[in-house]
Design a protein that fits this description.
The complex is a heterodimer of chains A (about 300) and B (about 170). With about 300 residues, chain A is α+β, with helices and mostly antiparallel strands. Chain A has one domain. Chain A is built from 4 helices and 12 strands, in the order H-H-H-E-E-E-E-E-E-E-E-E-E-E-E-H. In chain A, strands 1-2-5-4-3-12 form a 6-stranded antiparallel beta barrel. In chain A, strands 8-7-6-9-10-11 form a 6-stranded antiparallel sheet, with no helix packed on it. Chain A starts with a helix and ends with a helix. Chain B is mainly alpha-helical and about 170 residues long. Chain B has one domain: Arp2/3 complex 21 kDa subunit ARPC3, CATH 1.10.1760. Chain B contains 7 helices and 2 strands, in the order H-H-E-E-H-H-H-H-H. Chain B has a two-stranded antiparallel sheet. In chain B, a hairpin with a 2-residue loop joins strand 1 and strand 2. In chain B, helix 4 packs antiparallel against helix 5. Chain B is globular and about 50 Å long. The chains are: A alpha+beta (about 300), B mainly alpha (about 170). At the A-B interface, helix 1, helix 2, helix 3, strand 1 and strand 2 of A face strand 1, helix 4, helix 5 and helix 7 of B.
Chain lengths: ~300, ~170
């Protein structure tokens, strides 16, 4: 009796050990396979995110209410000062707006005369979405938004808040998308100084202030410069506001992101036609075409 | 061992209770809160439940449920798939044998949890140092502190739910 019981306990333990090792290996395999973006898990992940986004949307409602109460309370203390500042800014911006309109007309006429189609680069279409879950952990900085490919969101699209650039889409499901935030360790964005047009790469470091890297020796960067996207990578539109340049104690450049000025609830996605490489958009070789015509082959 | 004296049906029921609680905690932990400009997230809170996992629960089912919850947590938080599953399962495998026969008081449990979190943090920080990855150490420590502070609430809820289940059974 005791012997049988002892045997069954032994079998149970062995089975538990076997299941643990098996699941451990599966998890380990999944962990390494999902470290690249083209993982086989992308499809199922997008489906789970779709479901999770709709659940979290309802789950976060009371929390968003609490956040807006806390935000309203803190805003009330600053209301008078803010009102005064806003009035001054409005007066300043009205003047800038009229100048900008005049410049836009002038630019359009010049572009028409020269037959060039430069444009501002910033897409006109916006897709509004709600950030239903934000991950600000030490390992990853990302967010789940409740708009997906059904609304026209695609991989790589820029995601903005009212304050500035938030990140870009790394996975788009039907009704939800995963956004990689600018602070994430894997985030790399081509940026420039609005003042000097000096170029750099905004490199995420899992902290609130990403760094600037790949700065040319003669690049003119200064503390206080406004950082905007340069559009050089052909992935994001140019001129999207990012943040203000600062310096670390080690004398390295870092960027204080505009997006941190407020808590993130609503965002919008900019669908953007990426610049494809010439290989992907190849024009048929003219010489080959001519030979084909001469030989009479279609 | 305690687990060996419990009937298989009851052991499975314990595991399912743990799994259900884990599912709720994982979903709640994926939501973060911004209060007066300070973002608060509860990323390490599910580890409390790994620590407080029902002692007599069926091990095979426990591993399977923790694996599933870990994968779900990875998807919700955007971490590499398998990361949390590995941490949850390894956590249970390390914690369960050491606490198997001990019905600890709240204070002992809390101190035990703090010790476990400290060891775990030391290992992760060591790995981060070796791999030269830039882990946000301040955020990491804040997350650990949040989990330690939330522990009494989860413990109280567990005690309350347990008392409800026991009174139902009576």
């Amino acid at each position: 009796m005791v012997g049988n019981r002892g045997k069954s306990i032994q079998v149970k333990r062995q089975r538990a050990r076997f299941v643990f090792i098996l699941l451990f290996l599966v998890a380990f395999g999944l962990f390494f396979s999902s470290r690249n973006n083209n993982s086989m898990m992308n499809g199922p992940q997008a489906v789970v995110e779709d479901v999770a986004a709709s659940v979290l949307q309802y789950l976060t409602m009371p929390l968003r209410g609490l956040e807006s109460v806390s935000s309203t309370l803190s805003d009330r203390f600053k209301a008078h000062k803010q009102n005064e500042d806003l009035r001054q800014e409005l007066a300043r911006l009205s003047d800038i707006e009229s100048r900008a309109n005049a410049l836009t007309h002038k630019l359009n006429s010049l572009e028409t005369i020269l037959s060039v189609e430069a444009g501002s680069g910033v897409p006109q279409q916006k897709i509004a979405a709600r950030a239903v879950s934000e991950s600000n952990g030490p390992f990853v900085r990302s967010a789940l938004i409740n708009a997906g490919s059904k609304k026209g969101v695609k991989f790589g699209d820029a995601v903005m808040t009212v304050n500035g650039l938030y990140g870009h889409v790394v996975r788009a499901g039907n009704n939800s998308s995963r956004v990689l935030k600018l602070e994430d360790l894997n985030s790399r964005i081509a940026v420039m100084s609005e003042r000097s047009q000096a170029r750099a790469i905004l490199t995420g470091n899992n902290s609130r202030k990403p760094g600037l890297s790949f700065i040319a020796d003669d690049a003119d960067w200064q503390v206080g410069d406004v950082v905007v996207t340069s559009g050089d990578d052909g992935v994001l539109p140019a001129a999207l506001p990012v943040g203000i340049v600062g310096k670390t104690p080690n004398d390295l450049y870092q960027v204080d992101l505009f997006v941190h000025q407020n808590f993130v609830d609503w965002v919008w996605v900019y669908p953007f036609q990426k610049t494809s490489p010439p290989e992907a958009d190849a024009v048929p070789d003219l010489a080959e075409e001519l030979t084909a015509v001469e030989c009479g082959t279609p | 061992m305690l687990a060996d004296t419990i009937t298989p049906i009851r052991a499975r029921a314990y595991a399912l209770q743990g799994g259900l609680a884990m599912l709720v905690l994982v979903t709640l932990s994926a939501v973060n809160l911004n209060l007066i400009g300070t973002p608060l997230s509860f990323l390490f809170v599910p580890l409390i439940l790994v620590y407080l996992w029902p002692r007599g629960a069926d091990k095979v089912l426990s591993y399977c449920l923790l694996f599933g919850c870990g994968i779900l947590f990875d998807v919700l938080t955007g971490t590499a798939i398998g990361f949390w599953a590995l941490i949850f399962m390894t956590g249970l495998a390390v914690i369960q044998p050491t606490l198997m026969n001990r019905e600890a008081t709240f204070n002992v449990s809390w101190v035990g949890f703090i010790t476990w979190m400290s060891i775990w943090a030391a290992i992760l920080l060591g790995l981060n140092f070796i791999s030269a990855k830039e882990l946000d150490i301040v955020n990491f420590i804040i997350q650990i502190c949040i989990a330690i502070l939330v522990f009494p609430f989860v413990y109280a809820i567990r005690v309350y739910v347990r008392s409800l289940i026991i009174s139902e059974a009576d």
